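Q: Structure for this?
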Amino acid sequence: MNQDKIVIAHGGGGELSSRLIKEEILTRFGESPLKGLPDAASLTLNSSQILFSTDSFVVSPIEFPGGNIGDLAVHGTVNDISVAGGQAKYLSLSLILEEGLSIPLLRKVLDSIQEAAQFCNVKIVTGDTKVVGHGECDKIYINTAGIGEKYPNFNLSKTLLEEDDAILVSGNIGDHGMAVLTVREELPIKNGTKSDSASVHRLVKAAHPYGEAVRFMRDPTRGGVAAVLNEIISESQLGISLDESSIPINRKTRNVAEMLGIDLLNVACEGRMILICDKKSAKSILQAWQKLPEGKNAQIIGSLVADSPGKVKIKTFTGGSRVVSVPRGELLPRIC
Amino acid sequence: MNQDKIVIAHGGGGELSSRLIKEEILTRFGESPLKGLPDAASLTLNSSQILFSTDSFVVSPIEFPGGNIGDLAVHGTVNDISVAGGQAKYLSLSLILEEGLSIPLLRKVLDSIQEAAQFCNVKIVTGDTKVVGHGECDKIYINTAGIGEKYPNFNLSKTLLEEDDAILVSGNIGDHGMAVLTVREELPIKNGTKSDSASVHRLVKAAHPYGEAVRFMRDPTRGGVAAVLNEIISESQLGISLDESSIPINRKTRNVAEMLGIDLLNVACEGRMILICDKKSAKSILQAWQKLPEGKNAQIIGSLVADSPGKVKIKTFTGGSRVVSVPRGELLPRIC
């Protein structure tokens, strides 16, 4: 890397993040399940297969409309294991607390963790608590690591992607990022957008009967839908074609985004998932999702195409077409 | 808790730490393997047994004589799994980086992680990187979580402790805490003490042929040997008698500690372990340890006794006796 100092964009999920990971992490640890950077590592232990994943959470502010850092920390790791085709079973919980943190606020965060873990059917089984001085962290940072079991029938692999495969999204996009931004920037918006912080474990369970037709699942967090879709076809002979009119977006979220000039395709969700499957199974999965409260706004938003390999294009409302790229800098720091 | 704000001592490994965990964590998550607060959770997954543990590292400064935050983060979690009677196999690695962190320094830390992981025979298999603004963390915080397999023959349980059981320590105590303190406080000490940051996995492997005689193993980190020994007999009908003259201490470390009036029994080690076993096997384990470089200073430092139940006492150099208690406040913040 040319720079000699870490900048905010190194953590943003865009190009600089990806270079940091490639040049500094994969060069050292890439000869392991890390290679390919799956959402969760697939490991053999005592000759059985398990999934393992981790995330640290540094969201600011720690409370936002629709959630707080506690439920976010549970959902984030449960979702990584879910989209790797698994069922999360156990979580670790590691807290870094700032001296002076309000204990009632800590209790509120822990209550949210407890509630989210119950809903996701995971047990908090091990943990750690550190305290740092005032000004050495921003209230509370949380790390969770999770262990899960694989569903037997998902057949996830980028190499299986084919022309005409369908791209599904499980709900409105960009709500989490915009909710955090609204409250952090103290935007004067009444009844604004709420975070989508939620678990996708039931969506994955609903899709698993069609698992053999599913090629790819991911929760579009940092970098949003744009980053996920660009990553998947970056080295492919195929391209992606999206239809703007089919992308589910909450009206309030759209208003805020338009006001600020932000493209919601770049904004993080924390309770949505992208799924790519054989065209023939797409409607069945869509219908299964739409029966769940967290999938009621699910849509088929596009497909894999043979033209424009390696590129994501979108047909706009006005009938035009544009390329959807990955943001270079850091659009929304500390949203998770 | 009476306080309504987090103070540094909530993370110190002493009484306030233990109350925070009991009152806020165990009340919410205690109906799980967390109950009893083992070093690593013992879990059933796909009907086989695994060990799972986590630690966050916030040591200041991040480089100290004998190590840095990187090898510390590997050793800490490997050691938790080791003293739970297991062999660590896989680690997650989650970084929180401060904006402005020197990338050459980050590389040095990552190199130490790689080297320590190789020595410990663990693979880094999953990870996460977050960046926070300048002043929102202190250079770098690291979380590792680890998964391991159990050795079949350890028979660890506090309920098996018996009178005359021997207490072993694998090497000089307090080196890590004093090394960090010396450099942090810029004490004018030449050729001062070096951290003991190291893995105990080979010590556990050396003890495992005698596993059925081993009742307890732990690495004395925050709170030091005093905290570990007090915790183990706090609800017991037995007490502990230590012999000060048998406790291995580096001369330089002793000098610094005496100068500062610090009791090394309260100071963290990051590469030592305490083991309690049947008296009959103590010498065999001691000899096995002393054959390893990391065990060359190992000693039998005391035993379980029937008098003074629930208390740790020490026979001093001068022939007296005193109670060794757990520090109430925070002696040495941010040593791990």
